[in-house]
Amino acid sequence: MLERIAARDREAMREFYLLYYPRVARFLRRMTCRHDLVDEMSNDALFVVWEKARDFRGDSRVSTWIMGIAYRRGLNLLRSECRAKARMVAPVTEDQPLRDVVADQSDRAELVERALESLSPDHRAILELTYYLGHSCGEIAAIMDCPINTVKTRMFHARNKLRALVPILAAPRGAAQAYSLITETRAGDM
Predict the structure, then answer these.
(1) pTM assigned to the model
(2) Mean pLDDT taken over the chain
(3) pLDDT tens digits for 70-111?
(4) Nearest to 54 by CA among 43, 40, 65
(5) How many angstroms separate the CA atoms of 76 and 8, rounded?
(6) 68: which residues sit within 8 A by CB, 6+ positions away?
(7) Whole-angstrom Cα distance, residue 111 to residue 165?
């Protein structure tokens, strides 16, 4: 299909888009937590596929190549958003909980989702690529353009941070504690 796309076959690109858009969008949604930008980032990544299809060398699976493109596009956007957001941060006190955690105590999936949102983009991407998309450490290393040991280290730290955050978020007064841990986590990751 990529050969047909490289030859500018629009029907092949349409089929490719329909096949990969949901995967790319889901990955970026989980990685960035910026649902308002997911469509733009997904389309941007798939446009790169249209432009660079002839550059695909076959060193990896097509899905690995595409997720690498999406990862880099998403990370670039997050970096620019982070710089802009740093200029406009409003302080949060213990009297202003981030969310009503007590209502969500019984829903473990919601707690994990919220804990994932607090992780750095690299850590979220590692978990998404591993557990939701089923990529191996080698494939993730290719996607993220880093050594395999870096993937393993990021996975180790991501799981440890999740392990620490979920109980804090489940506690009735956990929002304020979680905010301080999230702030420390993000400062260390960026």
Answers:
(1) 0.56
(2) 79
(3) 988 888 777 776 666 656 544 555 554 544 433 433 466 777
(4) 65
(5) 27
(6) 142, 143, 144, 145
(7) 9
